[in-house]
Amino acid sequence: MKILFVCTGNTCRSPMAEALLKSKLPGAEVKSAGIFAAKNQRASKHVVTLLDKKGIELSHQSKPVDEKLLNWADVVLLMTTGHKQSLIMEYPNFQDKYYTLKEFVSDSDRKVWDELKSLYAEYEMKKSQIIQEYQHKLNNVQLEEKLREYLQPDIQKISQLESSLINYDISDPFGGDIATYQKTLEELEDYIELLLKKIK
Questions:
Q1: Strands (DSSP E) along 40-167, which ranges?
Q2: pTM surpassing 0.70?
Q3: Superfamily of domain 2-106+168-199
Q4: Active site residues
């Protein structure tokens, strides 16, 4: 599987992800790029330092995303939902390859989404039943109150589930101190481990 990691400038998150995956899966076909990347910039010095501590050598030159890279990749793993939206708008022909890294490796959300879908359907059904039953007996204000009172438990359940959905973004350490970069590196490592399981 040919994997392309994409972030904003291709100097922090995507080179880290590329280096981590290559170190854990030698011979993997992996590249990285940035949506707003300049050509041939080196990776951030904090990235180089932290990877060096892990015994991972990084010689990296930044590059912007282009059609050639998107054609090459089997899957394009993005660092944020915003990156995904940008690519969908700029290169819509490749959109079935686009996933955020977290989205690609997470199964937990699928269960939540399935549950939410059935709750949404149930909510709509109950709502229309109440409207049918009371629309000629109550005025609009009373009907609204009736709906709120009757559907409150469902609304609560739905919002609890919605708030448990994963935030699909890997935090951007750009401009931060080395501890900020360390946090991002740890977050990426967790998801690269999950990616390895999925690939294998």
A1: 75-78, 98-100
A2: yes
A3: Response regulator (3.40.50.2300)
A4: 7, 13, 114
